[in-house]
Design brief:
519 residues, mainly alpha, 74% helix, 0% strand, globular, transmembrane helix
Length: 519
């Protein structure tokens, strides 16, 4: 299964390399080769219990698929922005690619360094790949860009040491690379932009995303340290939690956002949300869907009798939420992507805040949330945090957040790139959902080495092709320019990756589909 997963990742890397064919795509190829070898060292460390931190069990390290996401995103973003003639974002793509390669190399070197005896062949390969990447960076990056890449690496190292210690068994090494690498990059961007504020420059919704992500992470770190010295389950601690959340929100996060957007954040947000009648209709519709999702949670818990406390929700029941999320995102993508962008940021902040309430058992809702959500746990929620619903939101939102709007003058990219914002809907909302439902109910032929079925994968590919056809009918901004063969190949590769990967597919699949469509 690991070998097939690696072959599929190499397929994506070679596809991007064939389209781009420059020094960075060669570096991505070298990185993939060394990550393939280093991945087996990580897998051995996890099996022997020799890793420095406690990682999520029942999964391989996932180093290769995770290592390639950020570099390939940077490479394809660079190419798209170069074709559009936007130099600033072309250089930004170069920084993203270089940062991703350096973070992946660091994780590989870490695995090689703590493996006993020292693996000679992997050391040599890592050294060669590292030399190629550093040589390319030396001749491609300016001094300020090199400093920026090193800043992200430094933040990543410290953030990893803190969060992997505080949150055992929540991530595999690959998932830690993706999540903590992304948070480190966002934090560095926020610091950089805060120090170089130019009035009128930058989109307020981008600043809103940066401040929201950094704000919820800092909030979590603050309360984690605080509640190591006091019991978080008492009423006094709960009152202190809510009071300090209000103080940090109104006293730190709001002024920070005010400095960036040069206006009152609350007034800006209200004006933005109710700017047009279409937005008002979408907000009412989304409120109805949110109430429906809560209704599903309460109904499923009501069905759980006192005699069957160990009862867990079935796969099909959990996929109800995927259908609700698809129904949420598709109208937003068609009618108002900026509103969807901001609404997804708000939802992320709410989800993370509620997880803090559940994790710290904050009164009056902490214990209730623990009881309600325990029904929907699966084997991937082996750590103290429940992250699968947050990963689902991220998987649907990242293609919207990472879409290079400045490099798409008409609001959409040409060819298959027009489907980039729909990557989460196609890969997770349609593909993963259909594969799980049909595979668990009608699947008989299993892929070698996995529990996934051939019928589920084929049905998922077919369903995504139908979804693309429906998008063409209902979204007039999408024009594929006869790039149907590339779309079919992209969907097929990502669907096969869903069958073989043991990583969080809600997070990984949309990013790989976005890379393929942007390429």
């Amino acid at each position: 299964a690991v070998l097939v997963e690696s072959l599929l990742v190499f397929g994506v890397v070679l596809s991007v390399h064939a389209v781009v064919w420059d020094r960075f795509s060669w570096c991505a190829l070298a990185l993939a080769l060394q990550a393939f070898y280093a991945q087996f060292k990580w897998d051995r460390l996890l099996q022997q219990g020799g890793a420095v931190f406690q990682f999520r069990g029942a999964a391989n390290s996932g180093l290769l698929p995770a290592s390639m996401v950020i570099p390939l995103l940077g490479v394809v973003m660079k190419e798209r922005c170069r074709a559009a003639g936007i130099v600033y974002f072309e250089r930004f793509g170069v920084v993203v690619a270089s940062t991703g390669m350096l973070l992946a190399l660091f994780l590989s070197v870490l695995a090689v360094g703590i493996t006993k005896p020292v693996p000679t062949n992997t050391c040599i390969l890592t050294g060669v790949a590292g030399s190629v990447i550093i040589y390319t960076m030396k001749h491609s990056l300016t001094v300020s860009e090199v400093i920026e890449v090193l800043e992200v690496l430094l933040i990543f190292v410290y953030l990893s040491m803190i969060l992997l210690y505080l949150l055992p068994r929540c991530f595999t090494p690959g998932e830690a690379l993706l999540v903590l690498g992304g948070v480190s990059f966002v934090l560095n961007q926020l610091i950089k932009r805060s120090l170089n504020v130019v009035e009128g420059r930058g989109d307020p919704i981008d600043f809103f995303l940066l401040v929201a992500v950094v704000g919820v992470v800092l909030l979590g770190l603050f309360f984690t340290v605080l509640f190591t010295f006091m019991d978080s389950g008492t009423w006094i601690s709960s009152m202190f939690f809510h009071m300090m959340t209000a103080v940090l929100g109104l006293g730190v996060i709001m002024p920070w956002l005010y400095r960036l957007i040069q206006r009152n954040p609350l007034f800006w947000l209200l004006q933005f949300l109710f700017q047009t009648q279409t937005r008002l209709y979408l907000l009412v519709y989304w409120t109805f869907l949110a109430a429906s999702a809560c209704g599903v949670v309460f109904y499923q818990n009501a069905k759980r009798s006192s005699e069957s406390k160990k009862h867990q929700a079935s796969t099909i029941t959990r996929k109800y939420f995927h259908f609700i999320v698809v129904a949420t995102y598709v109208p937003g993508l068609i009618y108002d992507r900026q509103l969807l962008y901001v609404a997804a940021v708000l939802c992320l902040a709410v989800f993370v805040f509620l997880e803090y309430v559940r994790y710290f058992r904050i009164k009056p809702f902490g214990q209730t949330l623990r009881h309600l959500l325990s029904l929907f746990l699966d084997e991937r929620d082996s750590g103290p945090l429940i992250l699968t619903h947050i990963y689902l939101l991220l998987g649907m939102s990242l293609p919207v957040w990472l879409f290079p709007r400045s490099c798409a003058p008409k609001g959409t990219l040409p060819g298959a790139g027009a489907l980039v914002p729909y990557s989460g809907v196609l890969a997770v909302g349609v593909g993963d959902t259909i594969a799980s439902v049909f595979g668990s109910t009608m699947g008989e032929i299993k892929w070698p080495g996995t529990k996934k079925t051939f019928e589920g994968t084929m049905t998922a590919i077919f369903a995504q092709i139908i979804a693309v056809a429906l998008i063409l009918i209902f979204d007039s901004s999408v024009n594929l320019n006869s790039s149907y063969a590339w779309i079919l190949a992209s969907v097929s590769l990502v669907s096969l990756l869903e069958a073989y990967t043991t990583q969080i597919d809600n997070l990984l699949l949309p990013l790989y589909l976005q890379i393929m469509l942007m390429a």
